[in-house]
Write a structure and sequence with these properties.
Layout lengths: L24 H23 L4 E2 L3 E4 L6 H8 L2 H4 L13 H14 L3 E8 L5 E10 L4 E8 L8 H16 L4 E7 L3 H9 L3 E12 L2 E11 H6 L1
Parallel strand pairs: 5-6
Antiparallel strand pairs: 1-2, 2-3, 3-4, 4-5, 6-8, 7-8
């Protein structure tokens, strides 16, 4: 299964870390003053987040020790081509820079990112994250799963757990995701976890010499609670 949800524009150096949308200075100050205490509590929870467990998987924080495994799995062309920013070939040693970048973003309260690992082997099989907009209380879900683990439901299993985490622990109002229309393995995961189709962005991105459409899915907290 080809798994990737394009959440937001990714940082070119870190290949997966989302660029934070710029805000006007006045809005930043206003938001900071009104939400300071709440954001500090959320930040503490994110930095000290517990692992998430499913029937077959353990979702945990990334560590530098994951760098070789990330390069091995993300270095596959069939994985890279389902994403917007994983480079191919994957530069040797760059996964450490990527991990440091996402951990810094996580500490600043911009994202939570999980290593998807098998319970039995403890092997990392992919990565999944939620990128935040604190002002709008929404998060964008993104993920990739290594090619050896396509077709066995790991993406859906992990995404269900993170969807619950986003709504029940982070108290987000909406979670959404995007994927190439040519990548049904990814948007079918979105459908299986209950996200609803919201539209298609025509020829919205350019990748490996071609323009691609992006399909958009989302779910509000109200709709989630009614499930």
């Amino acid at each position: 299964m080809k798994l990737f949800s394009r959440i937001v524009d990714c940082d070119e150096k870190n290949y997966f870390v989302s660029n934070i949308l710029s805000e006007g200075h006045e809005n930043i100050v206003k938001h900071y003053e009104s939400k300071k205490d709440l954001n500090q509590k959320k930040l503490k929870r994110r930095v000290n987040m517990s692992s998430l467990k499913t029937d077959r998987l353990l979702l945990r924080s990334l560590s530098i020790q994951d760098s070789d495994r990330i390069e091995e799995l993300a270095g596959e062309y069939d994985v890279a081509k389902t994403t917007l920013n994983i480079p191919h070939p994957y530069p040797k040693g760059s996964a450490k820079e990527f991990i440091n970048g996402v951990l810094n973003a996580e500490e600043s309260g911009k994202v939570v990112i999980f290593a998807i690992t098998e319970k039995t082997t403890h092997d990392l099989v992919g990565i999944m994250s939620i990128q935040f907009s604190n002002i709008h209380k929404r998060g964008e879900l993104a993920y990739w799963v290594g090619k050896p683990y396509w077709g066995i439901g790991y993406g859906t299993e992990a995404a269900k757990s993170i969807l619950s985490y986003g709504f029940e622990e982070l108290k987000l109002n909406k979670i959404y995701a995007q994927a190439f229309t040519a990548n049904p393995g990814s948007w079918r995961v979105m459908e299986k976890i209950g996200l609803k189709y919201e539209g298609t962005l025509k020829q919205h991105v350019f990748r490996f010499g071609k323009f691609y459409d992006l399909v958009c899915y989302g779910l509000t907290s109200d709709a989630y609670l009614k499930k």
